[in-house]
What does this fold into?
Amino acid sequence: MIAMPWVYIEDLSQHVGEEVELRGWLYNKRSSGKIHFLQVRDGTGICQCVASISDLGAETFAAADHMGQETSLRVTGVARADKRAPGGYELGLKSLTIVSPANDYPITPKEHGVAYLLDHRQLWVRSARQHAILRIRSEVESACRDFFSQRGFVLFDAPVLTPISCEGTTNLFQLDYFGERKAYLTQSGQLYAEAGALAFGKVYTFGPTFRAEKSKTRRHLTEFWMVEPEVAYFDLDDDMRLAEDFVAFIVGRVLERRAADLQALERDVTRLEAAASTPYPRISYDEAIERLKAKGMTVNWGDDFGGDEETALSEEFDRPVMVHRYPTQCKAFYMKQDPARPDVALCVDMLAPEGHGEIIGGGQREDDYETLRNKILAHDLPLAPFEWYLDLRRYGSVPHAGFGMGIERMTGWICGIHHIRECIPFPRMMERLEP
Ligand code: 4AD
Ligand code: MG
It folds into this structure.
């Protein structure tokens, strides 16, 4: 390996006593007049750099006094361990070079409103709290890939431009396709994942998905990332076991590798530790209705659950709960009906604890050609664009199941973040398309 000309702050522990170079940005500074204390960040951490006039020379020392927050700079100095320093290490400076100045940086340590911060999202992502959240998101995403790849799943990327609707027609983004026809932004890769499952046995899709949601809740984005496994010969029980193993794996991974970020967010990890082990509780929709009624909520059999119901149900458990067999009437056309009880579907929603709501939706798919064809018609969907999908039932249909997990909802729960808009680098919501 070629030695890098500079080191990253996260690796400073391996360089104690050595003279190293850091390349980064000024996060904060204070000065006693004789000594500057510069907080330098490089994306991997923050390091306190200490400089006196004799270290830097009068000119550089004076220039350093006027550097604005987020000035980019290169510094060299000797790394030393210091328990009082923020990351545990500090640098005794030998040189400082300003790469590019920054004046009047719009995000100061004082409080800003969320709208202002979202307007400056391109800069807000440099803040410590946003770093912790987005690093955890990144860990969640790599855990998803590792989990499925360890289990032999094939990554089967689904198209984003589609001719059909998967999750109902009321929240579809429509676009003009060469003036000749309509196209839609995908709501889910599932239908394509089903083709993949019948080809490869077990696959997953992972990509952006879109919902023209007119709901301005803390759990809804118009663009979000979804990971969707699909497995041939799986039934609902197999699907639920996969879902709980998957979520427990991700939580365990974040606890193991991102403890510092969870701490920066002041996340109570005892609330996550339970979720790192399985099994998770399972309750039927019928039982969920009874539990909600017992809590004095007005719900009727047949209603879909909203945020309030999900929060009330999740409060009763210390780890995610799986609610299965919702009424067929409130679920998508592709859901398989329970042969023992056609009024319910062989589906499952996983609800995160602490009121973070539904993180997974999925279930067993209708695998009978005639039944599926009739369901498409009953949902007022046109048959022609679904002919390819019906082929999966014409040629060697098998029972199969899968689910979709929203990356932002999962990240939001793990981080204990109230609104999922902070869990994606550039959130898209009904009232926000910028930056
Ligand atoms: O429950 P949903 O709509 O299920 C599907 O799309 C299935 N086709 C998935 C499948 O079986 N392959 O969405 C799945 C998950 C939800 O549980 C939630 O985590 C997330 O996607 N999600 C959203 N996240 C953010 N904003 C939105 N508007 C979301 N809608 C769904
Ligand atoms: Mg759902």
